[in-house]
Amino acid sequence: MAISSLESLMERWERFFQEYCKDKIESVALLYPEKKSLLLDYWDIDRYDSELGEYLLEKPYRAIYAAEVALKRIDVAGEAPPLHFRIKNLPETRKIEIRDLRATHLGKFIAVDGLVKKVTEVRPKLRDAAFECQKCGAIIKVPQEENTITEPLECYSDQGGCGRKSSFKLLTEESVFIDSQKIEIQESPEGLRGGAQPMRLVIHLEDDLVGDIVPGDRITVNGILRAQSRRSGRVKLTEFNKVMDANSIEIKEQAFEEIAISEEDEKKIKEVSKDPMLYEKIRNSIAPTIYGLETEKDALALQLFGGVPKIMPDGTRIRGDIHILLVGDPGTAKSQLLRYISQLAPRSIYTSGKSSSAAGLTASAVRSDEFGEGRWTLEAGALVLADLGIACVDELDKMSPKDRDALHQAMEQQEISVAKAGINATLKSRCALLGAANPKFGRFDEYSPLADQINIPPALLSRFDLIFPLTDKPDKERDEALASHILEVHKYGEILACDKEIEIDKIKPAFDPEFLRKYIAYAKRNVFPILTEEAMEKIKEYYVDMRARSKETVPFTPRQLEAFIRIAEASARMRLSNVVTAEDAERAIKIVEYYLRKVGMEREIGDFNIDIITTGITKTQKDKMKIITEIIREICQEIEGPAPLEEIIERAKEEGMDKDTVEKLINKMRKEGIIFEPKHGKYRLTSE
After folding, report:
1. Which residues of 385-409 are buried (b: 16+ CB within 10 A; e: fewer)?
2. CA 675 to CA 648: how far, in whole Å?
């Protein structure tokens, strides 16, 4: 039977509800007003009546109105509450990208995927307005459709009025209001072509849909696209804005749902995970055009997989993401590695620190005239948008200190707090951070503490699990191999430019990036390794042994112990194993030891010292600082005033320190706040 009239449409919906959804309607009605909606799968309707399903997609406003009227007619125990009719899981043909929305989609039921960028506050919206006639006092009800209030044209006599055209007063207490909210979504950044600006779409939410969405959420909105008129002053324009009225929202709780993995892909992924050369193949698939850096590429591969985040019974969250910092000489391919990782990760954001502000990286409260009607709205930054993925931040050292401070909370607690303009919010930034920085003096000096060489405070450096210096030292054999590799890469590039069909094995990755993205997404979605007793014993033994062996310095802190665990978990996850073995623990120890040997080794005593990274001061410097502190104290007591620099240098020489060392240490002590300079060239201790 064809759908000819509104009444016949209502009858079909009523029949469908009676036969198929009676129990669901009763359970929702009992929970009213906590639950206000009947949520159905589109395919349940299509299976029952394909014509009704098709009509819903083509004429959604009429179909949903008829369904909600039919819902009120269903006989449930007691009074039938006014339920909303909501649909999820639309057909694939109705899933449209934001940039592909066109005029043909207006008025149709469609699904759009996106990342929530902005959210307004929840506001009441007038649905049924009650007006009082100023002459006779009659009350007239007028349903509201548009954004502007529709007043009655006259005091209708059929509603008990006087029939005259008069002025009316809105009675808010007699009117019916519903909650409303606006959100703005944008395309997922990983799906964009290079240089493309992400397209955005404004979504209108009403009643029970409001208040659950926060910036940074990845959602699928099922709703109706409509045109919204634009004005230039009082003149209405022929160009309209696209907006969407949401019918239902599906929040993507599971990570990486945006990457489709077929059964065939899953079979291949499981096959590949058993390959004994898996680690080498994945390492060789990371930036194959870049020569060497085997351990660094191993660490980057492990960062892509990440450890397991844990939520404890008391609500404490322990991060599973591995943070890595690359510090290096110019021309050591840091930016190229970052670019490659950002394209390889299933979910990622690439940004340069030089052009990033704190608001651009974390989150901000912005005043938006068009979107928020001049009110403050919350806007998510790069680290929130990279939630559950990787944020690649180049030129980390070029950021202003104020902006860099915003990273502390984002890295350890993996949350971002915004307290501005009356908005107090906490957003999630559960992402791994891959940073790149250049040394202050152009080249990396392995004999100087790391904190002295990079414009990054030690407190932030200590939050990185791994720090790798990429140095460029002349070495005949290595230089020959590197030069040959670069020349071959260029030669192959030239051949490829001429002949598209040719296959070149040398620079071809073992796994193509598309497959590797699927492999990573599958592992992160399905594999959650648990430490075995052997692995725990191995890490514990190494940690305790190293701390016991080191008499004068602290080689590790519990932060490094957590890094061992995260890297071992990532190693197990890489081969899709649900247990962390002793081999995984060994791999973690090897990588952390390699990093500490590079940046955490105190050359004078030949031992690891984590303080070089966490405080920027070596043990030798600390001992010398103690001597200088005592010298300043003695001089101040003798002359009953601040100690002159010349006198400090003279006495320090007797302790075996030269002038340069003393001046450097005094500068450092002044910066650390140990001493201060009341007069030029004269010093006092701050503690006295």
Report:
1. bbbbbbbbbbbbbbbeeebbebbee
2. 13
- SS3 assignment for 162-187: CCCCCCEEECCCCCEEEEEEEEEEEC
**Side chain identity at residue 655, one-letter code:** E
Domain ranges of the chain: 6-89, 98-251, 619-685
CATH class assigned to 98-251: mainly beta
Does the domain at 6-89 match CATH 1.10.443.10? Answer given as no
Rounded-to-integer distance, Cα 118 and Cα 182, Å: 8
Measuring CA to CA, which residue among 579, 359, 327, 274 is closest to residue 467? 327
Distance of alpha carbon 346 from the chain centroid: 12
**Distance of CA 620 to CAs 429, 597, 648, Å?**
39, 17, 18
List Cβ neighbours of 63 (8 Å cut-off, separation of 6 or more): 9, 52, 55, 56
Q: Domain 619-685 belongs to what topology?
A: Arc Repressor Mutant, subunit A (1.10.10)
Helix axes 582-599, 294-305, angle to 10 degrees: 120
Which residue type, as a one-letter code, is found at position 423?
Answer: I
Q: What is the pLDDT of residue 612?
A: 58
The answer to whether 154 and 145 have CB atoms below 8 angstroms apart is no
What is the pTM for the complete model shown?
Answer: 0.69
pLDDT digits (tens, 9 = 90+) for 178-212: 888 888 888 876 666 545 577 888 888 888 888 88
Residue 538: both structure tokens together: 């191995």
